[in-house]
Specification:
Strand 1 and strand 2 form a beta hairpin. The chain contains 15 helices and two strands.
């Protein structure tokens, strides 16, 4: 055979298809691959284990429709805020102002209705628009000015909280007044029976938004761009992704979702209060749900379903421990352990995959 007889050399070569070691991973390797391919699997497993443990300890009390009602009512606001937080964190950012934006949006909806006499529908749209606008400002500062998301949203948190108190003059709008004169503001609090559990429109809205956002992130070009920017922004730009436009859209959508959370707050509590605790603790609660839900703080990995499961995990632990008569500090201890564990699992998956 001549040195240039490439076809003859090819005929004498092996005809086997190239194989990699995926088939030889074993049970542990396949489990790791499943965790990497399905980030929401870990929080789902934790949620099922938590439900199983409390079912054994508390018995039928924990599986009652009333318990389901309490959990859903408890997590609806945090769940919505976690959706907004998830979008930001998927781009390798973080938003410390989501809780403040939600409270400010609710205050604007109430004040526009009662101070200026606007129709409730117009006031609600104005609150959603301003929430979107605040998100746009944060997105512009992160994308165009190149400021760190942590610094931008930390500053925005303080600005929005101050604006909230200054604009409202710390005035609370009573539930009875809203019910009598602007019932649409309490629309998210409308209740109906579902298999014995009492479900509100706020809970329905949360579930619908989870489904819609999960589809957008999984099945649209926009969703793929969000993951690409979070994973490697330079490579994403080289691939033709418009980084500025995508980041702007993410922050604006997060602001809009916070506006929805503000509307849900009015339905949940009945009144409009500028001093609602969500403005301070909502930020940490949303990050907690996202981290426990398996969304990587380094961006580019995770799912909306994971954040939803993370919010449910927090709700199950809080209610389960309360029903068991445990000290409230055990809730913080276990949730803190879950946060550290979730980050450790994420790091392990990333290192093993690399």
């Amino acid at each position: 055979m001549s040195a240039s007889d490439y076809e003859g050399a090819a005929k004498g070569g092996s005809g086997d298809v190239a194989k990699f070691d995926d088939e030889d991973k074993g049970l542990f390797g396949r489990f790791h691959h499943a965790l990497h391919a399905t980030p929401a699997l870990v929080p789902l497993i934790v949620l099922m284990v938590a439900i199983g443990i409390f079912a054994i300890v508390l018995g039928e009390r924990f599986f009652s429709p009333g318990t389901l009602t309490l959990i859903l009512q408890q997590v609806q606001i945090v769940g919505i805020l976690a959706l907004a937080q998830s979008l930001i964190i998927l781009t390798a950012g973080i938003d410390l102002s989501v809780g403040a934006m939600a409270v400010f949006s609710s205050v604007l909806m109430g004040q526009f209705t009662f101070r200026y006499g606007l129709p409730p529908a117009v006031a609600i749209m104005a609150g959603l628009a301003i929430g979107t606008g605040i998100g746009a400002i944060s997105g512009w500062l992160v994308s165009k000015v190149k400021l760190p998301p942590f610094i931008v949203t930390l500053g925005m948190w303080q600005i929005v909280l101050a604006a909230n108190y200054l604009y409202s003059k710390n005035e609370t709008i009573r539930s009875q007044d809203i019910r009598d004169e602007a019932a649409l503001l309490q629309f998210m609090g409308i209740r109906f029976d579902l298999g014995g559990a009492i479900v509100t429109m706020g809970v329905v809205t949360m579930v619908v938004m989870v489904i819609v956002l999960a589809y957008m992130l999984r099945s649209t070009a926009w969703g793929r761009h969000v993951y690409a920017i979070g994973d490697d922004p330079e490579a994403a730009e080289l691939a033709g992704v418009n980084k500025h436009r995508t980041i702007m859209s993410v922050y604006m959508l997060a602001g809009f979702i916070c506006g929805i959370a503000g509307w849900i707050m009015i339905g949940r509590f009945g009144s409009v209060s500028p001093s609602a605790s969500t403005g301070v603790v909502g930020n940490i609660q949303s990050i907690t749900a996202v981290v426990i839900g398996g969304i990587s703080l380094f961006g580019g990995r995770g799912s909306i379903w994971g954040a939803f499961f993370g919010a449910l995990i927090v709700g199950v632990f809080e209610l389960g421990l309360r029903m068991a008569g445990a000290n409230a500090q055990w809730t913080y201890l276990l949730i803190g352990a879950l946060i550290i564990g979730a980050v450790a699992v994420d790091q392990w998956i990333r290192k093993a995959t690399a």
